[in-house]
Here is the input.
Amino acid sequence: MKKIAVLGAGSWGTALAMLLDENGHNVTLWSIDPNEVEMLNTKHEQVDKLPGVKVSESIKATTDLEEAVVGKDVIVSAVPSVFVRSTAKSLSKYYKQGQIIIDVAKGIEEDTLMRLSEIIEEEIPGAIVCVLSGPSHAEEVARRIPTTVVIGAKNHTMAKDLQNSFSNSWFRAYTSPDILGIELGGALKNVIALAAGMLDGLKLGDNTKAALITRGTGEIARLGVAMGGKPETFSGLSGMGDLIVTCTSVHSRNHNAGKLIGEGKTYEEAMSEVKMVVEGVYSAKAALALAKKYDVELPIIEGVNEVLFNGKSVKDALHELFLRDVKREHEDLSWH
Here is the structure.
């Protein structure tokens, strides 16, 4: 049994706290919001984000970060990507060498182009940082629907230990050394999921969405490999797996926001209506900046940026994608 702190009591943080509690660990759930903490401690339910799902009374919620993390073996960072830096900065005052931080959020910092694990390492020098990602909507994990994820760590023994901590009869964790690839897959799929929602907003068909998911996977892999990620990662759980679920699920905030944009709303209006952090909006600019830095062509992600920030209609962006010069599907395959 481990002592585990989960930082962030939204849908994902709460679902993981429930999973870890069920697996026999001692779990403390931290939130910056006193109303959220009171709700969890009195109603034992995340009423706003996971209605109807009971949270075990053995999970204690608190607003006191020191109380949450001191003496813990593992710290799960489940705050939205835009709050990872500020939370890590606060955490640095209480972090003790040897504690494992496992980041489960997905995103790229817009100003610095840093991955979330890099941000935590910058704010907490010497921190041991791992990641968890994959097709894992909180709404389903909280209801014990079978789910698989991948845990990335620099050390194989540590990865195996975390794998055993998270895995049970309905939640299966795999391991990988490719932290960079796992994080990029998780962040960039949100941008593609916005595009998938836009297509649904236009009421287009399955052919169109299948094309988007397939070519979107190619874009993510091209950039990821250029940055040092492994090709296998992008066809795995944190690449293709997460992309499929985020582009097709009713639980996907990025898909739902994209659908509203496809119907004619601005991204600000869409985010307001979804009422949750839409990570893809924040990652879109960063993805385009990384593409320029590494000289990688990402036409879908470029089109999403044009729609979000430059006023281009979804129809025009799609039209331009189809009118680009025709080419081979895989440039490394040739006729002999």
In short: Residues 3-177 form a domain with the Rossmann fold fold (CATH 3.40.50.720). The CA atoms of residues 59 and 205 lie 44 Å apart.
